[in-house]
Amino acid sequence: MANPSSIGATGAAGPAIRRIVSGDVPHDPAENVTYVVVNSRDKRVVATFFLPGRADKFPNFSIVVTVPSATETYEAGRLDDHGKFIPANFTISETSPQGAPHGA
Questions:
Q1: Which residue range is the domain that position 32 belongs to?
Q2: C-alpha closest to that of 46 among 74, 21, 24
Q3: Alpha helix locations (H) across the chain?
């Protein structure tokens, strides 16, 4: 049986692939806003995260998300009312797999 800490966003066993999403917190009238991380190739949602609608105290953010593959590229943004992906001006950078030392 797979170690629960090694089960990724897809439910597949293997090393947890992490990416860091960062940028400025966009202003939005909603109190909390749902953002998605999608596979750049097919726009399939692979992760979600939440940000406040207002950045009164913290104008920037950095959050770690789990993605299913180290070889794919990803984008972060929102889904409109029709489910169409709207990219945000966020940066996605690499990080080490869970449990691996940085630089591994």
A1: 4-10+27-94
A2: 74
A3: none
